[in-house]
Amino acid sequence: MALLEAAGLGKRYGTKRVLWDVDLAFEAGEIAGVLGVNGAGKTTLLGCLAGMIGWDRGEVRLGGERLDRGRLDQRQRMMFLPGEGFHFGGADTIRNAAIFSELWRGIEAQPPIDLEEWLERLGLLEIAFESVETLSRGERYKAVLLALHCADPEIWLIDEPFAAGMDARGMEAFRQLVLAAATRGRCIVYTTQFPELAARFADRVVVVGSGGVLLNESTKDRDPEELIRQLGQELGIHGAHS
Ligand SMILES: Nc1ncnc2c1ncn2[C@@H]1O[C@H](COP(=O)(O)OP(=O)(O)OP(=O)(O)O)[C@@H](O)[C@H]1O
Description:
Layout: E1 4-13, E2 16-26, E3 31-35, H1 42-49, E4 57-62, E5 65-66, H2 72-75, E6 78-81, H3 93-105, H4 115-122, H5 137-151, E7 155-158, H6 168-183, E8 187-191, H7 195-200, E9 204-209, E10 212-218, H8 224-234
Parallel strand pairs: 3-8, 3-9, 6-7, 7-8
Antiparallel strand pairs: 1-2, 1-4, 4-5, 9-10
Helix pairs in contact: 3-5, 5-6
Bound molecules: adenosine-5'-triphosphate.
């Protein structure tokens, strides 16, 4: 059974219909990349899947059970990370990660990762005790990512991680952290504008557009170059012909 599903999901903002009849299913241990042109509804979709944005038709299912936005026990099984991240005011990177860990997994929980090692790998060790809000955009995003990993929910919904200002070292560390999380059975769904990236760093690629799902493919056994061309075509990239 899929861990997270959208079934006939639809969302309007006023009279503007953004999503209409979206059917998707994501498994535990799966990494999925969601693409779509600007305004296609990627952020809206992730927000709905996380229960943060209400929908008008269809439903979201969590482990086969209908997601009720009022149920904290369901909401706690996932986390939505917006492109600008979020953090607790005044907290430094370590305190911020500890707060997320306590809120999501309880006060006794040990981090699922070696915090010091990952502070080092993300380039945050020297600034680990500085307030997150005084960090640079990329540093701040890395700090929030670390907090997400310490919270370690079953489902990670991450909006545009590869456009959040992280340097190359940060993006590589992000990839490694996500792969480790998927190995622990976490389901990771992220949005991106980069077909090359999604084709090479996802088990499944999804393209949303015109209110629905234009493409939903496993990357397994696919030639990445051919998949990139197919994604490019769906995204209307001029010259992306197979
Ligand atoms: N709170 C809102 N009120 C009204 N319209 C909204 C709201 N949020 C999003 N929209 C509209 O819904 C559409 C989809 O927005 P969304 O942010 O989900 O797209 P996106 O695919 O994530 O876009 P981008 O690639 O530019 O980040 C857009 O046309 C946007 O104007």
